[in-house]
Amino acid sequence: MKSIQNYIDGKSVRGAREFADVNPADGSVIAQVTEANEELVDAAVQAARRALRGEWGRWGIRERAARLNRVADAIEKRFDCFVAAEVADTGKPIALASKLDVPRAAANFRAFADLIKSAGVEAFQTETPDEKSALNYAVRKPLGVVGIITPWNLPLLLLTWKVAPALACGNTVVVKPSEETPATATLLAEAMQEAGIPDGVYNVVHGFGPSSAGEFLTKHPDVNAVTFTGESQTGAAIMKTVAASVKPVSFELGGKNAAIIFADCEFENAVNGIRDAVFLNTGQVCLCAERVYVERPIVERFVEKLKQEAERLRIGSPLEPTTEMGPLISAQHREKVLSYYKLAREEGATLVTGGDVPEFGNALDHGFYVQPTIYTGLSETARCVKEEIFGPVCHVAAFDTEEEAVRMANDTKYGLAASIWTTDLKRGHRMAQQMNVGITWVNCWFLRDLRTPFGGAGLSGIGREGGMHSLNFYSELNNICIRL
Ligand code: NAD
Ligand code: 6OH
Question: Of 119, 288, 292, 423, whose Cβ has the fewest other Cβ atoms within 10 Å?
Answer without folding.
Answer: 423
